[in-house]
Design brief:
mainly alpha, two-stranded antiparallel ribbon
């Protein structure tokens, strides 16, 4: 009989009626599999958008990586209010790029 996978519990906090996920962006950004994917995505975006990246595109830039990470680690197919996480990843990328 196949064992059912036991997933980690995701940390979540309700803020102004919306779920937020403290530390999740940092976990994804520093993950050994997803961190390099974020860097490749950032490099690709920078090459494609010579005029620069805008904050309002963060969910489009990184949404699929957040969804893939949460599905793999937490068994969550659709993370509620995922743009809170993509926004944090965007700013982690900006900070890392500026260093």
């Amino acid at each position: 009989m196949a064992k059912k996978k036991v997933y980690e519990k995701i940390d979540q906090v309700m803020v102004d009626g919306k779920w937020t996920y403290p530390g999740l962006a940092e976990k994804i950004f520093n993950d050994e599999l997803f961190g390099p994917r974020i860097k490749r995505r950032l490099d690709s975006l920078i090459a494609e958008h010579s005029e620069g990246l805008t904050e309002r595109g963060h969910d489009w830039y990184f949404g699929y990586l957040v969804c893939a990470y949460t599905q793999r680690h937490y068994g969550i197919n659709t993370l509620l209010n995922f743009p809170t996480v993509t926004r944090e990843i965007f700013f982690l990328c900006v900070d890392a790029y500026d260093e």
